[in-house]
């Protein structure tokens, strides 16, 4: 092979290697950022750690939950009922908005009164956005303006024998954990609040109370 051909082959190989390196770099960049440029989460929070933390506080240290509104943001909770596909469903949603300080990597989790396990057809009451791959951050007067988290459960028609049957005293109780901030300076807030029921939820609970 002539020296000229060898040189051309050498440059072609260099170009191929350069293109491959660019592709690998682009792939790495894509996995480290979300669709809107959100950084990939690097914290140690997991579904199991959040569930364990919240459930242990509910059952062993309920006095640690705050009953008042947070200072740095607004926190609201709502509850609604519906009848879909022949079953009654109850839906809970929490919303963090109106932030007055930067909130980096917001993680939301909630659970219900433990007695609701006798009323809800589900393996557990806990719910969280901790499984998100990328960070969601909130800043005053910037998009996104808020961050919500919701879940619906199937309601059982009748409680188990020997359990508390007064659902109307339990269904609105929500135990919520909101954490945010850099990994070395996380703020963890715990709240026990009453979810605001929709009008049809109020009517539904009145009917259930009469039935039982």
Spatial ordering of strands, largest sheet: 5-2-1-8
Instruction: Report the biggest beta sheet as strand number plus sense, adding barrel if it closes.
Output: 4 strands, mixed
Task: Give the helix tally.
Answer: 3
Q: Estimate percent helicity.
A: 25-40%
**H/E series:** HHEEEEEEEEH
Poorly predicted residue ranges: 22-30
Strand content: 25-35%
SSE arrangement:
Layout (H helix, E strand, L loop, with lengths): L2 H30 L14 H14 L13 E11 L2 E11 L9 E6 L14 E2 L17 E9 L18 E8 L6 E8 L1 E2 L1 H13 L1
Parallel strand pairs: 1-8
Antiparallel strand pairs: 1-2, 2-5, 3-4, 3-6, 6-7
Task: Please supply descriptive tags for the structure shown above.
single chain; 212 residues; alpha+beta; 8 strands; 27% strand; elongated
């Amino acid at each position: 092979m002539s020296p000229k051909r060898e040189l051309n082959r050498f440059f072609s190989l260099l170009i191929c290697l350069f293109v491959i390196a660019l592709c690998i770099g682009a792939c790495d960049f894509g996995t480290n950022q979300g669709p809107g440029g959100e950084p990939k989460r690097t914290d140690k929070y997991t579904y199991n750690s959040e569930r364990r933390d919240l459930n242990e506080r509910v059952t062993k240290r309920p006095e640690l939950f705050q009953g008042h509104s947070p200072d740095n943001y607004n926190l609201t909770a709502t509850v609604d009922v519906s009848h879909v596909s022949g079953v009654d469903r109850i839906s809970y949603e929490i919303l963090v908005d109106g932030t007055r300080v930067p909130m980096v990597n917001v993680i939301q989790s909630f659970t219900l009164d433990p007695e609701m396990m006798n009323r809800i057809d589900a393996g557990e009451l806990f719910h969280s956005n901790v499984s998100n791959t990328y960070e969601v951050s909130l800043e005053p007067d910037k998009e996104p303006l808020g961050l919500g988290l919701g879940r619906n459960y199937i309601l059982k028609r009748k409680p188990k024998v020997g359990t508390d049957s007064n659902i109307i005293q339990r269904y609105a109780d929500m135990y919520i954990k909101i954490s945010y901030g850099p990994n070395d300076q996380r703020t963890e807030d715990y709240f026990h609040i009453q979810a605001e029921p929709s009008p049809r939820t109020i009517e539904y609970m009145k009917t259930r109370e009469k039935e039982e």
